[in-house]
Amino acid sequence: MTKKLQTAAVIDIGSNELRLHIAQSTDADTIHYLENLNYPLSLGRDTFHMGKISFEKVDKACEVIKGFLNVIKGYGIRHVYTIACTAIREAANRDYVLDQIKIKTGIDVHVMDDLEEKRHIYKLLTYYADDYLKKSAVMVYIGTGSIGVNLYIDGKMPRTWNIRVGSLRMSEMFGNLQDVTRDFYRLMEEYLAGYIYKLEAELPAGIRNFIVSGQEGGLISELVMHENEDFLHGKPLYGIERGVFDSFYEKIKHQTVDRIVNDYDIAVDKAEMVLPAACICQKLLGCTDAKTIIASRLLPCDSILFEMLYPKKFADVDKRFENDTILSAKELAQRYGANIAHGKIVCDYADTIFSKIKKLHGLGVRDRVLLETAAYLHDIGEYINSLDHHLISYEMVKRSDIVGLTQAEQEIVALICRFHSGTPDLKSFYYNVIPTETKVRVSKLAAMLRLADSIDRSHTQKKIEIDVKLLDDALLITVHTGENYTLEKWAFAEKSRFFEDVFGIKAELYLNKTGCRT
Known about the structure:
Strand order of the largest sheet: 8-7-6-9-11-10
Helix content: 40-55%
Strand content: 15-25%
Structural class: alpha/beta
Shape: globular
Distance between the termini: 55 Å
Radius of gyration: 25 Å
Largest sheet: 6 strands, mixed
Number of strands: 14
Number of helices: 23
């Protein structure tokens, strides 16, 4: 029996253009695009140049969106998902822009944070990449305002780097110097070197594959590979020989924007992106031994369409990404000399508590991942100073790169680490910057981590077994051990007070000194 085909639509409000993608599922579990429409509109230029988006462009964007909605209606699609990235995200008048779009078109726009945008791309790339690519690769996302770099080793992602430099941002910064500076490309190369030197030092030697994605990466691929069969037939990944790209870069790095417009028959706004994007690609490619660039035209909207059309397959990708998030947290903890054995056992205890009190906390699977991540990272502040290390852990986690987390999630993990010690207070400065529902979410997760941390207060992983049971009026944790457990009992009594404040029931620790379960 042939399965029923599904249809979905995504509107993407990009920095350089507005895009509409309408796609349908297939029996072969691939995406069949029914419509791919775009309208050039340089919202990002307003944001990077003036700090805000002009309402003339907002009005034009609304006009285009209403046209897109008419097309969507013709396909009988009731629900459309609309996203926006850098241009709207970084605009000082973001809230006013979103309000006008809502009033004039009736749609709600989901503004992706920088890390969420990259995460969508990485997820879809991991689905399409074969085992050989996953064995040893650097995965690069070139955006208008930032660059993302992921390390892929033996099918796992232990490291990620986010660099606040993008093609449009560079074009806006240096574009006016191109006509007055000889060897303009050197200016860009030197500017990038100031960001990439640390990446070069931290990446392992001998990386065999280089995967590039993003709108600007797609533009470069289009210019280099316009006659390539894989590119022409819309395959998600296709190869560009390193020598071919090197020749292209050698050619365009000496060209003006006008010359690029004429030679490649593209619009001026796209031509302005060519040299910055190619320069970024060249510098990052130099960090690897790759002989071929594996290029992709995939964008966050493609990932969202895939998730809408194939939720079960996407859930499998999500699960692998969750494992990479925990791996990345462990790697970060190791880098700062944290006690990994302590982090592991706290993670296990926290996981047990989370599972046993599901009906009490009402949290989801994603919250478990954030709790496990915090379990490995809560003590990394001791790398700087053991005094008030929980405060330092907060700052370090907030500013670190962790695979698979959005910026909002990274803030949550940082706050859980902040409140694993000390006395949490809803009126504290750290809570003031987050929504009320997030405050409660953080408090629940921090309360669980505090209990788990106290059970190994000595950081020596004493020989114990624990039973956790949720009663009507208490959470009972029974510790079976023959060892001295006085320190842990004291720590548990101290840290359990916050659990009662959050959940309204006591957390009690019972010691079974026989060392075995009864």
